[in-house]
Amino acid sequence: MKSFIALLFNSVLFIAFVNAQNPVQLQISQESQEVKISRNIYGHFSEHLGRCIYDGFWIDSSVQVAAKDRIRLDIVNALKNIRCPLLRWPGGCFADQYHWTDGVGPREKRPKRVNTTWGMVTEDNSFGTQEFLQLCELIGCEPYVAGNVGTGSPREMANWLEYLNFDGNSQLANERRANGHEKPYKVSFWGVGNESWGCGGAMIPSYYSDQYRRYAEFCKNYPGTSLKKIASGSNVDDYNWTEVCMKNIPLHMMWGISLHFYTLAGNWQNKGSATNFGEDEYFKAVKNSLFMNELIEKHSAIMDKYDPEKKVSLCVDEWGIWTDVEPGTNPAFLHQQNSMRDAIIAASTLNIFNNHAERVRLACLAQTVNVLQSLILTKGDKMILTPTYYVFDLYKVHQDAVRLKLNFSSPAYNFGNDKIPAISSTASKDSNGVIHITLVNTDPHHGYPVSTSLSGFKSQNISGKVLTSLHVNDVNTFEKPDLVKTADFKGFKRQGDQLVIELPPLSIVMLQIK
Ligand code: AHR
Questions:
Q1: In 214-241, which positions are buried (b, 16+ CB within 10 angstroms) versus exposed (e)?
Q2: Any bridge partners for residue 453, and if so which?
Q3: Are 193 and 251 in contact, with CB atoms under 8 Å apart?
């Protein structure tokens, strides 16, 4: 009798839930908008900072893992798996104190310097130009080099490019050959300074835009490589920086202009823990990350005034969540754990980038291994993949696909007196005609039914994957590396020509229709 009452009660509850929830109607237009989602939106950033390069990618013989030279191959393979398209290096703030000649030639002859930005540690320069380019070759990604404006000179920058890209007979090209690379490296993505408003030289925008013109003028296109020069752009909502640069720099002199925005759950003095937080900080961090949408819209509107044909790309070449460091680690090394919250932030942000793909053509998450919102954490010979890694694995299907227009209204995720949209999404069609839909549900308490029409889709073989976890602060650890990882998703069914998806709470879903 007791169990009959329980059953009845549960059924009533279930019916009430279904009735209360009209499915979210997701309209996917079959018409192409002719906008391609550039694969370079899925780029990454690795700086000489903490354990990203040294004791991250680049190991010594005490670490017992397969390596090519000193490059860890388990990391390389993980990045290949997510089709990492682009890697930015050597900084960050480090870029404007880096002199490339310190990092070429025989390693035993390279000078030791001090990394004055990140902890005053000794930089032995064992990882330099040829090692970075070997890393990119192993991953199969494009290098994106940030050149030094702050403490460099136009001549130093011009020489680096000649060393890298000139195929003919010159002292610098021959030096490259003597260092083991006969053919030019063909590096095309080229940053002219980093955060030139701050650690890159504390410049004002009119001064920087003059300097940009001067430096960029001497960055030559050697035969076979056309440079994609990227100006150092705004700090978050410094719209004046974008305005002045767009006004002063002729469009033909820049391929892109950058934007840096980091998400905090608190403030710069007290950023909040990466693991020890509740729904309050979860909500704040996710809400703050969604500010990316407004930033892109407002910077793009300024760019539109000077560049209505959208020739210049907005390059969000540093983004991600920045928390307090893991207790007991060097504060200058910016080593943080990575949770299910961070995966939700990554997926929501990638949806924002995809939905602005007509202007955003490059982005780099900060910073790949062991620093800030990492894809990968290492400890000795162990390596774990973070929840954020799995987002890039799910979303790789959008790389270079044609975006499909979406229309829907999201239910609200309410917290206290505040609210944010629960659902965000991207839909795209790849070169084989396969359609992919990614959906994020930020709401940790409610699942939502989402319904979309299948009529008009030629092939209808549907499969799905999901990333979800019980708690917003669930993380993968070296002891439990697989707590948060993708699984097959079966929570969808056809109803006539409708596809009805039961989007779980706190989840990221990728559906493939082929
Ligand atoms: O990613 C860490 C630092 O954040 C970078 O070095 C700098 O560009 C930014 O301020």
A1: ebbeebeebeebebbbbbbbbeeebeeb
A2: 498
A3: no
Concatenated DSSP letters of 222-269? -TT---EEEEEEEETT-HHHHHHHHHHS-GGG-SEEEEEEEE-SS-SS
- Strand-pairing partners, residue 495, are 498
The predicted-structure confidence for 165-213, as pLDDT tens digits, reads as follows 999 999 999 999 999 999 999 999 999 999 999 999 999 999 999 999 9
Where would I find the beta strands (DSSP E) of 392-514?
402-407, 412-415, 418-421, 423-429, 435-441, 448-453, 462-468, 487-488, 492-495, 498-503, 507-513
Domains and CATH numbers, the chain: 2-33+404-513 (2.60.40.1180), 39-400 (3.20.20.80)
Q: Whole-angstrom distance between the N-terminal and C-terminal Cα of the chain?
A: 48
Across the range 205-224, mean pLDDT stands at 98
Contact between 377 and 386 (Cβ < 8 Å): yes
156 φψ region: left (φ > 0), alpha (ψ -120 to 50), beta (else): alpha
pTM above 0.90, yes or no: yes
Strands 67-68 and 71-72: antiparallel
Contact 389, 397 (CB under 8 A): no
Task: Name the residue at shortest CA distance from atom 2 of ligand 1.
Answer: 92
Q: What pLDDT was estimated at residue 30?
A: 77
Q: How much distance in Å is there from the Cα of 93 to the middle of ligand 1?
A: 6
- 138 to each of 76, 131, 487, how far by Cα in Å? 7, 10, 28
The residue written with tokens 């993949």 in the block is 385
Whole-number Å distance between alpha carbons of 405 and 400: 15
Q: What is the largest CA-CA distance in the chain?
A: 92
Q: 261: which 2 tokens?
A: 């925005």
**Active site (annotated) includes residue 318:** yes
The residues pairing with 424 across neighbouring beta strands, listed in sequence order, are: 440
In 43-101, which ranges are continuous DSSP H helix?
A: 73-81
**In the annotation, is 217 catalytic?**
no
Name which of 321, 347, 392, 318 is nearest 42 in CA terms: 392
Q: How far is residue 218 CA from its own chain's centroid?
A: 30
- Please, which residues bridge with residue 435 across strands? 429, 513
Query: Has residue 376 got a pLDDT over 60?
Result: yes
Q: How far is the CA of 99 from the centre of ligand 1 (A)?
A: 18
Atom 5 in ligand 1: which residue has the minimum CA distance? Answer: 92
